[in-house]
Amino acid sequence: MQPYIISELVRLFADMSFVVIALLVFGIVLIALEMITPERGRFGISGLFLVVVAFVLRMLAGGSPAMLFLLVAITFVIILAIFCVITISQKTAWIDAALGREELRNVPDGSQKRNNYGALLGQIGTTTSKLAPSGQMYLGDTTFFVTSDLGIIEHDKKVRVVEVRGEQIVVQEIE
C-alpha cells in the first residue's frame, strides 16, 4: 500500500484537465517573464492570477487539502528554480545572448560596443527631454536614456557624461 501523500500526488496529476495544465504552465511562464523583463508587475500579477485560477479549477474537480498543498508546493519549487536559473544566468550573461538583448550599440567615436557605455565618458550631448532626473540625450547619431547627476535638467541643454554604472549613463549640465 502506498503512503497517503504519494497516492494524492498520483491523483493530483492523473485527474488534472488540459485547461488546468495550460493555465498553470502559462501562469508560471508569465511569472518568469516578469523576473526577466519587469513590466511593472503586469506579467507577474497576470501569471499569479492564472496560477490561482488553475488551483481553484483543480480543487473544484475533486481535490483534497493534501492535493492543494502538493500543487502549491510544486508550483513554488518550479518558480524558485526558475528564479535561481535567471539569477545565475544574468551573472553569466548567457540569457542576454539567448534572448537577443546583447546588441551592438553605436558610440560617438564611430565604433560599436556591446552594452559598454564606458566609451561615452566625457562626451557632450544635448537633452531631448527634461531630465527629472531621468530622460533622453542625443549624442552623435544616437539617443541614449540618461540620468541627471544633480537634479532637473531642462530640454535642449548641453550635458556631459560624467559616470557610467553598467547600463546607466549619468550626465551633468554644462553651464
Explain what the structure shows.
- By secondary structure, the protein is α+β, with helices and mostly antiparallel strands.
- 47% of the residues lie in helices and 21% in strands.
- The protein has five helices and seven strands, in the order H-H-H-H-H-E-E-E-E-E-E-E.
- It has helices spanning 4-14, 18-36, 42-60, 65-92, 94-99; strands at residues 104-106, 112-114, 124-127, 134-139, 142-148, 158-165, 168-173.
- The strands form two sheets. A five-stranded mixed β-barrel has the order 3-4-5-7-6.
- Helix 2 (18-36) runs antiparallel to helix 3 and helix 2 (18-36) runs parallel beside helix 4.
- The longest helix is centred in the middle third of the chain and has 28 residues, at 65-92.
- It is rod-shaped.
- The model is unreliable at 101-106 (pLDDT under 50).
- What ranges have pLDDT less than 50 throughout 5 or more consecutive residues? 101-106
What is the structural class? alpha+beta
CA gyration radius, whole angstroms: 24 Å
Overall mean pLDDT score? 81
Order of secondary-structure elements:
HHHHHEEEEEEE
Number of helices: 5
Percent strand: 15-25%
Describe the global form.
rod-shaped
Order of the strands making up the biggest sheet: 3-4-5-7-6
The description of the largest β-sheet is: 5 strands, mixed, barrel
The helix fraction, in percent, is 40-55%
Distance between the termini: 82 Å
Number of DSSP-assigned strands = 7
